[in-house]
Amino acid sequence: MSIELSVVIPVYCCARCLDRLHERLVAVLAPLTPDFEIIMVNDASPDEAWPVMCGLAERDPRVRAVALSRNFGQHAAMTAGLAEARGRYAVVMDCDLQDPPEELPRLYAKAQEGYDVVYAKRKRKQHSLYRQTMARVYNKVLNLFSPHRIDPEYGSFSLIARPVIDAYLGIRNHGQHYLFMLHWLGFRSTHIEYEHAERGDQGPSSYTLGHLIRFALDGLFLQTTVLLRWIVYFGFGCAGLGFLGVVWMTYKALTGPLLPGWASLGVLILMVGGVLMISLGIVALYIGRIFEQVQERPHYVVAQRVGGGREAT
């Protein structure tokens, strides 16, 4: 059977809302196209999400449940779901009902106009003030260093056509950022605006401060090398200041005695030494990412699949 639309849902700590998510998705997708599938990817969720997903897959043949062997992260789970998707189009969305399934017809309608990528832009975020602040800082820093500017109101909620799916799966970067890669790929794109829903009774977001910091570092060091160029520019700037300092000291030595300045000299040495250590640290992080990349480990490992004519494997 030819699949028109695949819905890819990374699942983590959302067992309580999966039944409602499935019910709302079916209510929206059934009138839209009879040829759809729902792919739920369990990213080693610590709650009872997997048994719920298996139950949905057993009751509804249009649902497929995929379990990763461990927690690989949201973007790896998205990639795993897209690799399983057979549809002409794929929608990527969160499992916590903050991305309303009722917006899928609008995404699909835009795709029918000829767009390969349709982003969903949030009119208003329903995250906590802390989460919104961290996200705003992260996006500003990422946009500062990235040649591809990403609107901070965009999330993973989006629709992509089959050529985009295939091109995305062809990227072999470890820790790749979904939105950044879509922007890098290009393709004809547009967006819709929607109201970001309340999280409800699923509990707080699983993104802790540590997760956000690690995610930000991955965004900086895996998606762009502009920091390395900035180090070079800063090095030239320091060299220029040093040259001006030599000119100034030569002038003072010729026109009069030099002023004592051992304290300021010590501070300057410490500052330059600190900058050098930071620069070496940044270079070391890039080298570490190169080491991870050349190992050619898979982005994720699938432990089980249920549904789609398959028993648990």
Describe the structure.
By secondary structure, the chain is an alpha/beta fold. Helix 5 (129-145) packs parallel to helix 8 and helix 9 runs antiparallel to helix 10 (262-294). It contains 10 helices and 8 strands. Strands 7-5-6-4-1-2-3-8 form an 8-stranded mixed β-sheet, with helices on both faces. It has helices at residues 18-32, 49-59, 74-84, 104-112, 129-145, 162-169, 178-185, 209-223, 226-255, 262-294, and strands at 5-11, 36-42, 63-68, 89-92, 117-122, 154-161, 189-194, 302-307. The mean pLDDT is 78. Helix 2 links the parallel strand 2 and strand 3.
Brief overview:
It is built from 10 helices and 8 strands. The chain has 313 residues and is α/β, with parallel strands linked by helices. It has 2 domains: 5-222 and 299-307, Spore Coat Polysaccharide Biosynthesis Protein SpsA, Chain A; 226-294.
Corresponding CATH superfamily of the largest domain = Spore Coat Polysaccharide Biosynthesis Protein SpsA, Chain A
Tell me which oligomeric state these chains represent: single chain
Q: Give the overall shape.
A: elongated
Number of domains: 2
Estimated helix fraction? 40-55%
User: What CATH architecture of the largest domain do you see?
Assistant: Alpha-Beta Complex
Strand order in the sheet with the most strands: 7-5-6-4-1-2-3-8
Please mark out the parts with pLDDT under 50 across 5 or more consecutive residues, or reply none: none
Radius of gyration, CA atoms, in whole angstroms: 25 Å
- Helix-strand sequence: EHEHEHEHEHEHHEHHHE
Average pLDDT, all residues: 78
- Assign the CATH topology of the largest domain: Spore Coat Polysaccharide Biosynthesis Protein SpsA, Chain A
Largest sheet: number of strands, sense, barrel closure: 8 strands, mixed
What class do helices, strands and sheet pairing give? alpha/beta
Strand content: 15-25%
Tell me the name of the CATH class of the largest domain.
Answer: Alpha Beta
Instruction: Count the DSSP helices.
Output: 10
Q: For the record, give the distance between the C-alpha atoms at the N and C termini, rounded to a whole number.
A: 22 Å
